[in-house]
Amino acid sequence: MSAEELKLIDEMFDNCEYQESLDMIQKLTDRNSCEVQWRLARSVFFLSKQSTVNDEKEKLCREAFDHVSVALETDGDNFGANKWYGAILAEKATLDGVTERIKQLENVQKHFQRAVSLNGTSDSGIWHMLGQFHYKLSEVNWITRKLIETVAPNPPTASYADALECFTKAETIKPGFYALNWLYLGKCHLALKQPAEAKVWLERGAAVEVRCEDDRICREEATELLKKL
């Protein structure tokens, strides 16, 4: 494994070439290192997001979690391992039911914040993930909020303003890095009753070139939200 190989894998991922990045990882001679394991988890996780077959989505998500768990056990202070452990744990916990999802909220937040402390100044992706964490926690209904307070020992708090700050930080670090960041910037401004600001981001999202499932989600949701402005 070389730095050049890892860089090429990252470039494939950034270009939405998830299967190609997985194929390259599987050809590496050293696949047990933390840096390889979290990249393996990332590729498998995004393949799960592309699948339209529920059983396959779940299988791939759980496989990704196994890989990222190995990465974190290998090096608990690794930025990528913490970042992707938080993201994949959140999705796996959702598969395991509402109670498990709530129980893992604090753990997900812990790994996101650890990743921010390790490389928050130059990685836009971790700020987007933290933004989604805040956004989704802010939009839960009263019943779910009461359940969170009952189930979670130290339930995290969040607001749309917190989420907006994270998405804005992500966009500042690397403008246009991820279509869903535009969508969530628009959604945050809508939640904060700032339609003019929301429109700017939603128009970008509605015009995005569709290269993967997240692009499709962005384009469709942004288009629908624009109709309501």
List keywords for this structure.
single chain, 229 residues, mainly alpha, Serine Threonine Protein Phosphatase 5, Tetratricopeptide repeat, 77% helix, globular, RMD1-3_a_helical_rpt, Regulator of microtubule dynamics protein 1, cytoskeleton
What does it look like?
With about 230 residues, the chain is mostly helical. The protein has a domain at about 1-95: Serine Threonine Protein Phosphatase 5, Tetratricopeptide repeat (Alpha Horseshoe), CATH 1.25.40.10. Helices cover about 75% and strands about 0% of the residues. It is built from 13 helices and no strands. Helix 3 (about 35-50) packs antiparallel against helix 4 and helix 8 packs antiparallel against helix 10. The radius of gyration is 18 Å and the shape is globular. The relative contact order is 0.08. The model has no long low-confidence stretch (mean pLDDT about 95).
